[in-house]
């Protein structure tokens, strides 16, 4: 799960990273109130979306820039009015862009230099991979391509203590000296601690600015949290819906269904993530395109199957539904019953292909046959994929 900048900044500020004062607003009037409270100009208004490249982004209506400097509080209100409710398209959002529901209003920093600093996992080394560059800012992607030697890299092992000398070594490699080196090392330590404490998979500050008084400021912040750890981060779960923009994904999330929306026409309902991926692969092999990834899990019941159907059926491109169940822990008779009951409540407007295999498959088939459900049966996955693709073409 990706956190919006304002949540990431709240986390970083709590960990002791210097963050310029800011407030969050959902309406132009709220933005104005924040500006008045900050009592300082100029101020910066920043669109909150779960993607970078906002500074160089453009709104769907042509308005330029998701990061704007404002000279007056009145201008803050005007800029917020332009951004809120708009769709911001950046190099990272893809052409559809992302809707702006919140902005932050923050102090403007007199930037002398912009540093890039990021933490991610190195899975092969079971360590945190830290990357830094003195050439941070909005051109960082181009610099990474053209000038990779401008980056300093170092891994920090998770099961070892964090020694100050290691932090200073990294700062020194970036060319910091005396007080700047001490300040930078402290920030890096806070980031490493925040990363571990919040089960992050990414923590990026770009830019970490240096102002005229040689002070560091985190002007931007991006944090991704490992979804599997959310059970122990109660406070963060509330932000889960903020960065899901696909309406089917949002519905799936609210029903606890493991769903990723795609742009094909064959809706897939599968048990098990591995089987779901194999199903997508084999569809692709026969020239079909999945409309989604959907894993109902090992112990799906009628309620979950019903919810899964609801999400599938709302996909705008849907032409066929393919159910591929391999009953291991899951019993085929229970899933067959769930399909029959769920489709009674949610009438299907597209053909349905079913492949059932495994525990109590005979009983499952009987339930399907006795029901009034219209479906095409397939004995194996290959046959199921071919039939689904044929139905799309018909
Ligand atoms: P993005 O990475 O999405 O483009 P940033 O928050 O990094 O958004 O902002 C883009 C650029 O805007 C920064 O590189 C910085 O130059 C400038 N900027 C951002 N926040 C501030 C601020 N509070 N004060 C001054 N300049 C800022
Ligand atoms: Mg940035």
From TrEMBL:
Keywords: ATP-binding, Ligase, Magnesium, Metal-binding, Nucleotide-binding, Tricarboxylic acid cycle. It comes from the Bacteria. GO terms for biological process: succinyl-CoA metabolic process; tricarboxylic acid cycle. One of its GO terms (cellular component) is cytosol. Binds 1 Mg(2+) ion per subunit. Residues 9-55 form the ATP-grasp domain. Pathway: Carbohydrate metabolism; tricarboxylic acid cycle; succinate from succinyl-CoA (ligase route): step 1/1. Its EC number is 6.2.1.5. InterPro entries: ATP-grasp, ATP-grasp_succ-CoA_synth-type, ATP_grasp_subdomain_1, Succ-CoA_synthase_bsu_CS, SUCC_ACL_C, Succ_CoA_ligase-like_bsu, Succinyl-CoA_synth-like. Substrate binds at residues 271, 328-330. Its cofactor is Mg(2+). One of its GO terms (molecular function) is succinate-CoA ligase (ADP-forming) activity. Coiled coil: none annotated. Mg(2+) binds at residues 206, 220. The keyword Ligase applies. It is an enzyme of class 6 (ligase). Pfam families: ATP-grasp_2, Ligase_CoA. It catalyses: succinate + ATP + CoA = succinyl-CoA + ADP + phosphate; GTP + succinate + CoA = succinyl-CoA + GDP + phosphate. ATP binds at residues 46, 53-55, 109, 114. Succinyl-CoA synthetase functions in the citric acid cycle (TCA), coupling the hydrolysis of succinyl-CoA to the synthesis of either ATP or GTP and thus represents the only step of substrate-level phosphorylation in the TCA. The beta subunit provides nucleotide specificity of the enzyme and binds the substrate succinate, while the binding sites for coenzyme A and phosphate are found in the alpha subunit. Belongs to the succinate/malate CoA ligase beta subunit family. Heterotetramer of two alpha and two beta subunits. This is Succinate--CoA ligase [ADP-forming] subunit beta.
